[in-house]
């Protein structure tokens, strides 16, 4: 239930959507090949409220949805849009209420697709949703729905998600776009050409991350002369959006399967571009080693974020 209804008194002035609106071309999102557009590209389309036929909501709640819908800006012809209504957080979930809007002159049904939860110039997370649950959306209409993101769907803690600047957006996959290597300037300058080629060959030999997924792949691990453990990791971004990592907790296991190092790293907005992989070094001081270095077997190893 929207928090508007938790207030003792509600005036129209108090009712307003907090999320942004993000529209895409219907042809980019839906399989509409062979269907001619009936819309005038210059026309402004105002969408009518459509409540899911299985919903049985109080009259007051329908009034609020109708009021908010009437406040929305018009769409262009043949667009599908997500217009954020409200975002509510608890310890386990982020619940986003939004209008799914269509300016198409025909009834549509959206299938399984990936949605991004976005803030100001950053992606908070992503999740694949079965949007057939939204139902058949009538022509030129707007249907409210709720989208739930859990911590595993997010790139940062729930507590860090802003509720004042947010939105939902469709993630459109570009066809035939290869996953590429993205080297930081310091790596570009210091890494030998043969080592760059080895990284590219490695990238071509491993399974790329799923759409929207962040994946860590170990490159190399070694002890430095000062006894510190250095692990080199390929950070893979399967999203179509650039992401910035502010911090990354890591656990390292050796060939025995035992945890040999654990710690958190401040990355100061390390950016991994859309659909790329970036190598990065993480150095564990001896104080973060959980096993005597002489007993650590690095013939096989893996690094991963600790499970919550």
Automatic annotation (TrEMBL):
InterPro entries: Sec_acc_SLAP, SLAP_dom
Region (Disordered) location: 1-21
NCBIfam families the UniProt entry points to: acc_Sec_SLAP, SLAP_DUP
Name assigned to this protein: Accessory Sec system S-layer assembly protein
Lineage, uppermost ranks: Bacteria, Bacillati, Bacillota, Bacilli, Bacillales
């Amino acid at each position: 239930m929207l928090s508007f209804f938790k207030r003792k008194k509600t005036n129209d002035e108090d009712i307003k959507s907090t999320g942004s609106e993000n529209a895409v071309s219907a042809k980019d999102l839906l399989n509409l090949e062979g269907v001619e557009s009936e819309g005038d590209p210059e026309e402004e389309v105002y969408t009518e409220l459509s409540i899911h036929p299985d919903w049985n909501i109080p009259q007051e709640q329908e009034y609020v949805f109708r009021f908010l819908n009437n406040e929305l800006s018009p769409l262009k012809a043949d667009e599908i849009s997500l217009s954020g209504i409200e975002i509510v957080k608890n310890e386990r979930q982020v619940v986003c209420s939004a209008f799914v809007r269509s300016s198409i002159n025909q009834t549509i049904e959206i299938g399984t697709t990936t949605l991004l939860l976005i803030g100001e110039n950053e992606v908070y997370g992503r999740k694949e949703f079965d949007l057939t649950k939204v139902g058949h959306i009538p022509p030129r209409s707007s249907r409210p729905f709720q989208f739930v993101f859990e911590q595993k769907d997010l790139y940062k803690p729930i507590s860090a998600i802003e509720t004042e600047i947010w939105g939902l957006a469709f993630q459109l996959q570009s066809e035939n776009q290869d996953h590429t290597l993205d080297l930081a300037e310091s790596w570009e300058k210091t890494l030998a050409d043969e080592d760059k080629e080895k990284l590219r060959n490695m990238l071509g030999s491993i399974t790329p991350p799923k759409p929207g997924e962040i994946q860590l792949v170990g490159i190399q691990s070694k002890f430095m002369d000062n006894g510190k453990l250095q692990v080199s990791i390929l950070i893979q971004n399967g999203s179509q959006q650039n992401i910035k990592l502010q911090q990354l907790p890591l656990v390292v296991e050796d060939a025995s399967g035992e945890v040999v190092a654990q710690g958190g790293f401040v990355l100061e907005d390390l950016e991994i571009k859309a659909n790329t992989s970036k190598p990065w070094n993480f150095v564990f001081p001896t104080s973060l080693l959980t096993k005597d270095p002489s007993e650590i077997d690095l013939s096989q190893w893996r690094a991963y974020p600790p499970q919550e």
